[in-house]
Structures are given as structure tokens and as C-alpha cells.
Amino acid sequence: MALMPVSDALAAVLAGVEPLPEQMVPLDEAHHRVLARDVAARRTQPPQAMSAMDGYAVRAADAAAIDSRLTVIGEVAAGRPFTGRVGAGEAVRIFTGGVVPDGADAVVIQEDTIADGKSVTIKEAAIVGRHIRPAGVDFREGDVLLRKGTRLTERDLALAAAMNHPQLAVCRRPKVAILATGDELVMPGATPGHGQIVYSNGFALHALARQEGAETIDLGIAADTLAATTAGIRRARESGADILITTGGASVGDHDLVQQALTDEGIAMAFWKIAMRPGKPMMHGRLGTMGVIGLPGNPVSSYVCAFLFMVPLIRALSGRSMIHHHRERAVLGRDLGANDQREDYLRARLDLRDDGTLVALPVSHQDSSLLANLAAAQVLLVRAPFAPKAEAGSPCEVLRLPV
Fold first, then answer.
1. pLDDT at residue 273 in the model
2. Please, where in the chain does CATH 3.40.980.10 lie?
3. CATH number of the structural domain 327-400
4. What value, to the nearest 5°, has the Cα angle with vertex 198 and ends 192 and 199?
5. Contact predicate 342/277, CB 8 Å
6. For the domain bounded by 6-20+173-318, which CATH number is listed?
7. How far apart are CA 204 and CA 295, in angstroms?
8. What is the pLDDT of residue 234?
């Protein structure tokens, strides 16, 4: 099979994907969940005109002149309104958040007054509307302030609470099952035998999936046998996974059994080679509603492919309005040679010049096994297939990696 362009591969991964069903969750459990419906205010905020400062509620006409002396007829505190009306020559002591009483149209802050028993002397002329928050200045009942597809921040939760919503309709979290393959893998803390390596891919994949709002299921490490690999795939199906991620065994060697196991289980393979670097031997297919992404075993290839393909798939299933990674403009920090037929995703550090220009400096060694360089990178520098050589200072595009 010919190498598939990255854009076509991503389109295949996302083809036909719909957001998962909605569920109602309490506000306390809605952080970083994705709204399944628009959310409209159930009340007006503030419901009445309220004071923005401590001072005196007055009629501006009565307090327009310095040294105006007014009679204090009552007091307003937050949650304790004044039931009377402010008339000519009168004032009401008011505190921040207090409802402005009928008849008053201005607040004079306490620093601009001199209180004397039952009267107050005005030392700064009042202006109509000053230090008053009008009713509905924040929002009004019926205003749609949170949109379907929004991933809820802590600020969104505060807004939803103020709109009087104790719970919200959100999309179900995608379930991502992760299966590693390879006789050579041992867990961190173990002593690797001859020819063995410490397993690292899964820790990044679980964290990346959870950061995007998914639940993860650890299927462990399958031995390099068809039976073990098949058993792992079946456990993913039984767990109700929406996405199965395999890592390793995606190439074409005698011991790379993932593709055979997936095919034997009835998974229709959309592709298994992509025109990208790192990550050419990546697979994708579907088994019923479960999407399958077979990642390469090299740790950098595994992570880059997961970032480029697994993350948008999780976002689509989560109902996010923004699915694709945002590309930013930068300039090259060093010369680069001409590219071949594969789209390159170079690990790079990012610097900010005094003039605001972003500078992307590719790390010196781009081998797909080098985790230290991946950990040091802030961005992936994207180079199109057959891009000509480029000098330092030339424009480029980058994708920011998660922090």
C-alpha cells in the first residue's frame, strides 16, 4: 500500500465520528467536560441595580453641590435591602453589593463624605449612575453564554453557577484502552535482561489521553504471540472502549503481529503506512464503534502519532468544537536541508525574541528513539513533503506540545 498523506490519514481517523451520548453531571464534576448543549442564563445578574462601593445612596440632584447635607434614613447591606424610598434631601447608608433603594440614582463613596449622626455631608459631587451596577450588566435571563462543544474551564463553572445551573449536560468521556506489545518490554523498576528495554510509551499515552478528558484502560503488555495480542484486543472490546491504542508491532517484521490480530478480529484497516516522519508504520481501522490506532513502537514515533491522531479523535468523541491542533507561525532557528516525500514533524525548542517573533530551533538529533530530545522540545516543527532547503530566519509552522 502506498504511503498515505497525513491529512488523508487524519480524515480517515475522524470519518463518521460523532460525539458520545450526553449525561447530566453536577457542577462540581463538570470541570474540563464538554458541553452537549448550549447553556442559557436562568436569571438576570445582578437582578437589581446594586452598589459597587461602600458609601451613600442618594439622588444626584441633591448631592450635586459640595457640602450638601443630607439626612440618613436607613441602611442597605448585601442581602438586606432598604424597603423605603429615598426622597428629596435624603440618603441611605449602603455597602458593596447592596440593592440601590428606590429613588436613588447615584452612590457617593464613603471617602467623599463626612458622617455626623443622622446626617452626612457630601464632599464630592454625585453623578447619575456613578458606582452603581445596573440590573443585567453581567447577563440577562435567557442569554446563551456557554456554547455546545465548550470544554469547561473553572471560569465557565463559576459562570454556570451564577446562571443558576446546579448541573450541566456534557458528553460522555471517551474510553481509551491502551495495549503494548513486545517480548522486549519490562516495566520501570525492573532489571532489563539482555536485549530488553524499559517500557515507556504507555505512560505518555495514558497521560495524554487523560489530559484530553478521556478515561483510560491499561491492557498491559502482550507477548509477541498472535494469541496474546488477540486476547488484548478482545479485552478492549469487552471493556467498552471507544478507542483501542496499540503500541509496537505495527511494522512488517515476522514478530509484528498487531495487524494480523486486528484483521483476524474483523477490524477493517483503513491504512497502515503514512507519509510522515516519525511514525510511518501507523495503522488505523474500526471495529463496530471502536476506533483502532496502531502506533509504532519507537517512543517518539508513538507519542507524535498519538498527539496528531489520537488527540483529535478523543476531541471529536468528546464533542469538542475545536478538534484540530492550531498551527502557529515562527521562524527557523537554524538551516534545514531539503525534505523528501514524507511530512516531517521535527522536535524543536521555542524562543521568543524581544520583538515578539517566535523562533523554532530543531534539536540536533531527530532519531525516533530519543526521549530526552522529545522531553526537551516545546513544539513540533512541521515541514511539508518535498520542502526545499531553508535558511535560518525563514518562516515555518509549529504545533505546541502540551505543558
1. 87
2. 6-20+173-318
3. 2.40.340.10
4. 140
5. yes
6. 3.40.980.10
7. 13
8. 95
CATH topology of domain 22-45+141-171: Molybdopterin biosynthesis moea protein, domain 2 (3.90.105)
* H or E element, residue 264: helix 258-264
Nearest to 59 by CA among 98, 83, 81, 87: 87
Where is 401: in which H helix or E strand?
Answer: none
Peptide bond into 278 cis (omega under 30): yes
CA distance 306 to 146: 29
| Neighbour tally for 403: CB within 10 Å | 5
Superfamily for 50-133?
Molybdopterin biosynthesis moea protein, domain 3. (2.170.190.11)
Q: How far apart are CA 26 and CA 399, in angstroms?
A: 34
pLDDT tens figures, 145-181: 999 999 999 999 999 999 999 999 999 999 999 999 9
372: CB partners within 8 A, 6+ apart: none
Task: Give the bridge partners for 343, in sequence order.
Answer: 276
Q: What is the pTM of this model?
A: 0.90
Mean pLDDT of the chain: 94
Query: Any long-range contacts for 233-236 (C-beta under 8 Å, 24+ apart)?
Result: 233/179, 233/261, 233/262, 233/265, 233/267, 234/265, 235/177, 235/179, 236/177, 236/179, 236/290
**pLDDT, tens digit, for every residue of 205-234?**
999 999 999 999 999 999 988 999 999 999
Gap between the Cα atoms of 278 and 301, Å rounded: 5
pLDDT digits (tens, 9 = 90+) for 303-316: 999 999 999 999 99
Q: Alpha-carbon distance 200 to 280, whole Å?
A: 20
pLDDT < 50 regions, the chain: 254-255
Residue pair 188/322 in contact (Cβ under 8 Å)? The answer is no
Q: What is the pLDDT, as a whole number, of residue 255?
A: 43
